[in-house]
Amino acid sequence: MNILILGGGGREHALAWAAKQNPKCDRLFAAPGNAGMANIAECISLNIEDGDAVLAFVHLNAIDFVIIGPEAPLAAGVADALRAANVLCFGPSKAAAQLEASKHFTKSVCDAAGAPTAAYAHFTELEAARAYVTEQGAPIVIKADGLAAGKGVVVAMTESEALDALDDMFGGAFGAAGAEVVIEEFMEGEEASFFVLCDGVDALPIGTAQDHKRVGEGDTGPNTGGMGAYSPAPVLTDAVARATMEQIVRPTLKEMSRRGTPYQGVLYVGLMIKDGAPRLVEYNVRFGDPECQVLMMRLGAQALDLLQACAEGRLSEAKVHWADDHAMTVVMAADGYPGAYEKGSMISGLDGLSASSRDMVFHAGTANKDGAIVASGGRVLNITARGATLQEARDRAYAMVDQIDWPEGFCRRDIGWRAL
Ligand code: AMP
Ligand code: GLY
Predict the structure, then answer these.
(1) Confidence band for 179, pLDDT divided at 50, 70 and 90
(2) What's the CATH number where 78 sits?
(3) FRET partner for 43 with CA separation of 20 to 30 A, picked from 56, 66, 277, 359?
(4) E strands along 248-318, which residues?
(5) DSSP H or E stretch at residue 156
């Protein structure tokens, strides 16, 4: 099977790594890929948000299966273009990707599905939104409706913070994404993520994880794309997982099918869990990054079979072979991230690290410059390990971190603190 993976972050390196271990994988391509993926895949340059361009590459290179990593090509309808041409593809249609691309859409689906989530109101006018905040009081959560690279959510602990956030959003701080705003009840509890493969009809849970969104230790400082993750998430017990499937995931899939836009791909279910009861915080229509790195570390080669069964509508026959293990990934980022950072600094010490089914460095923003690995993004490396316990996974991951020589980079030293 010839496979094309769209994307070039740590998530896509982990997907490529898992696929490559499966004997059915023949040629593996990645667009654009990164310096780490280049060791296992042919990295190519392609406009991955252009369905016609992707399709042309698929035909030219006899690609059998396309795996779409990030949300942008999904929201741009690349999966639709591929499926219309009968190309096997992992990832939801543009219409179904609305579950991530529009907060208001997701809220309306939850209403129709009866899925537990925060109470909300939806606004297109600043004055009405301000009046609602004043009436509700704080804490309260203000969300730009559209895709805002993970930055369109303000959890306001005071009324004035909430009003400032509204002024920013309606003032154009997030462009078109902020022209509509959802205001939500503040939910208390512990957050965790649940990953479910969906083929439009059937749904198969493939793991749980928790990430660390804040840049600083002790979960302080600005939000990032994620500074580390581990799997499984202890708070997401089997009972919580069952409740999530029954109350949230299955009713959502049913509602999506009823609307004529069945959901196919991985559904990333962001939950707030309090007293054993899950409520939906958000859906994403792709794997989390860095959550994917720990899920792939635990699933290994079978991940390709599962993604294929999902794309082919055969999830009812698919089974996950669970190992009773734990995985952790520690993100190394460029100094300054998530603010301004320099590109081009050299990273050494990677060659001496063992790469195995238990220890892997997944690359994100890296490039190869005259044979050396240099940083080319904000989040740069994902140091990932697996162990019989979370503590073992953690120790192995940080032992690798300590062998990497990159003075211009940093990582959090407390990934997993909540679970440990
Ligand atoms: P979202 O992009 O919707 O996942 O929101 C980003 C983050 O904001 C979440 O991961 C939560 O930490 C927080 N958040 C979002 N909605 C709520 C809510 N209704 N109550 C409390 N925290 C929330
Ligand atoms: N790590 C959070 C996300 O991928 O959205």
Answers:
(1) confident
(2) 3.40.50.20
(3) 359
(4) 264-274, 277-284
(5) strand 153-156
b/e burial code for range 85-118 (CB count within 10 A of at least 16 → b): eebbbbbbbbbbbbbbbbbbbbbbbbeebebbbb
The residue written with tokens 């890929």 in the block is: 33
Q: pLDDT tens, 107-151?
A: 999 999 999 999 999 999 999 999 999 999 999 999 998 877 667
Domain count, the chain: 4
The side-by-side arrangement of strands in the sheet containing 346-347 is: 346-347, 372-375, 366-369
| DSSP per-residue string spanning 332-379 | EEETTTTS------EEBS-TTS--SSSEEEEESSEEEETTEEEE-SSE
**Residue 355: predicted pLDDT:** 82
Domain residue limits at 394? 326-410
Task: Identify the CA nearest to 307 among candidates 59, 69, 37, 43.
Answer: 69
Nearest CA to ligand 1 atom 19: 186
pTM: 0.96
CA distance 236 to 17: 26
Residue nearest to atom 5 of ligand 2 (CA): 288
Contact, 30 vs 12, CB < 8 A? yes
Query: Is residue 106 situated within a structural domain?
Result: no
CA–centroid distance, residue 350 to ligand 2 (Å): 25
The dihedral formed by the CA atoms of 41, 46, 47 and 48, expressed in degrees to the nearest 10: -30
Q: For the chain, how long is the longest CA-to-CA vector?
A: 60
Which amino acid would we find at residue 167? D
Kindly state whether residues 219 and 309 are assigned to the same domain: yes
Does residue 415 lie within any of the structural domains? no
| The last residue of a domain, from among 317, 349, 381 | 317
Ligand in nearest proximity to the CA of 268: 2
Beta-carbon count within 10 A of 56 CB: 12
- Note whether 149 and 205 are same-domain residues: no
The answer to whether 283 and 99 have CB atoms below 8 angstroms apart is yes
Q: Which of 291, 294, 415 is the best mutation target for the ligand 2 pocket, counting ligand atoms within 8 Å of the beta carbon and taking the most?
A: 291
Tell whether 155 and 205 lie within a shared domain: no
CA distance 100 to 79: 15
